[in-house]
Design a protein that fits this description.
This protein is 42% helix and 13% strand. The chain has nine helices and eight strands. Helix 2 (37-46) links the parallel strand 2 (28-34) and strand 3 (54-58). Helix 1 (13-24) crosses helix 8 and helix 4 (107-129) packs parallel to helix 6 (186-212). The protein is globular. The relative contact order is 0.15. The structure holds NADPH dihydro-nicotinamide-adenine-dinucleotide phosphate. NADPH dihydro-nicotinamide-adenine-dinucleotide phosphate is lined by residues 8-9, 11-15, 34-36, 39, 59-62, 87-90, 111, 140, 142, 220-221, 223-225, 227-229.
Length: 315
């Protein structure tokens, strides 16, 4: 029988390419956890996924109610859970004003971090029950939140500061919409959310790896300059970014290649070490990458974990 993997945001880009790679391997049934049911069905058909090789289930990460409902629906399907991939993300680089999630949290941190934080915490017990020899929980990271790299040093840089905005609820009323308490900046909010993703993976590893045997990992799949992530960027940027990445920085990877990389983190026995942030060389060999000072700060990881627990109603 096949293993079961849930992938959030499997309706496009990296999530769809990973779904395709896992289904093609013949080892996985993929649960595509998506906010737009019809779009996900169309996407599955567009890459030729055979009927029965995947299941679309509704999940809107910008609503904690929806996250809880998804977990209920998944459980009532009776499927086991062998791997969870937290992949979905939004990015608002040109937004002048913040927008908010159902619970009133700034939308990029709400979607990319808080929704996934609740989802992963709730599904931990399902993963624990899996009979698979290699159960995995993966949170997709990024280089842009990593200030020890060239790309991570393009302003505005990620910086969670003392987390006073997160502590206040990121609501733009009684607190700043930004984690560090500063003025709204859409590009920075995305990078901050990615730092939270990387800190969360490591905190999961410290708290639960020994106890559960689950492998916790994060990764930077390469620059996939063609995905929907850049949909709200200005047209000139969208036209120039792919060739720039291809010919100048040489960090460009196709959606297909990035999907194969993430699928490796899900299923390869050589990538089963827990607590690792994986990256790939230009020849597509994988290596354990080093995170920036902030993205590997244990005290900050603990703080983000505890504040996030309060915001999503786990504490
Ligand atoms: P896409 O925009 O193509 O995919 C993002 C996915 O997230 C879409 O399926 C989207 O759904 C989904 N999504 C957005 N909001 C929600 C929500 N509220 N609830 C459920 N699903 C939601 O971008 P990518 O494939 O590029 O991004 C995937 C991951 O890769 C992200 O974590 C990103 O940070 C990371 N990444 C991307 C890089 C790149 O160069 N592209 C580089 C490094 C990391 P819908 O189809 O309905 O819009």
């Amino acid at each position: 029988t096949k293993s079961v993997c849930i992938i959030t945001g499997a309706s496009s880009g990296l999530g769809l390419a990973t779904t395709k790679a896992l289904v093609d391997s013949g080892e996985f049934h993929v649960v595509m956890a998506c906010r737009d049911f019809l779009k996900a069905e169309k996407a599955a058909k567009s890459v030729g996924l055979p009927k029965g090789s995947y299941t679309v289930m509704h999940l809107d990460l910008a609503s904690l109610e929806s996250v809880r409902q998804f977990v209920k629906n998944f459980r009532s399907s009776g499927m086991p859970l062998d791997a969870l991939v937290c992949n979905a993300a939004v990015y608002f680089p040109t937004a002048k004003e913040p927008t908010y999630s159902a619970e009133g949290f700034e939308l990029s941190v709400a979607t990319n971090h808080l929704g996934h934080f609740l989802l992963a915490r709730l599904l931990l017990e399902d993963l624990e029950k899996s009979e698979s020899k290699s159960k995995r929980l993966i949170i997709v990271g990024s280089i842009t939140g990593n200030t020890n790299t060239l790309a991570g040093n393009v302003p505005p840089k990620a910086n969670l500061g003392d987390c006073r905005g997160l502590s206040g609820g990121l609501n733009g009323v009684t607190s700043s919409p930004m984690i560090d308490g500063g003025a709204f900046d859409g590009a920075k909010a995305y990078k901050d959310s990615k730092v939270c993703n990387m800190l969360t993976m490591q905190e999961f590893h410290r708290r639960y790896h020994e106890k559960t045997g689950i492998t916790f990992s994060s990764l930077y799949p390469g620059c996939i300059a063609t995905t929907g992530l850049f949909r709200s960027h200005i047209p000139l940027f969208r036209a120039l970014f792919p060739p720039f990445q291809k010919y100048i920085t040489k960090g460009f990877v196709s959606e297909e290649e990035s999907g194969k990389r993430l699928a490796q983190v899900v299923q390869d026995s050589s990538l089963s070490k827990s607590g690792v942030y994986w990256s790939w060389n230009n020849d597509s060999s994988s290596f354990e990458n080093v995170l920036s000072e902030e993205a590997s700060d244990e005290a900050k990881a603990k703080k983000v974990w505890e504040l996030s627990e309060k915001l999503v109603g786990l504490a």
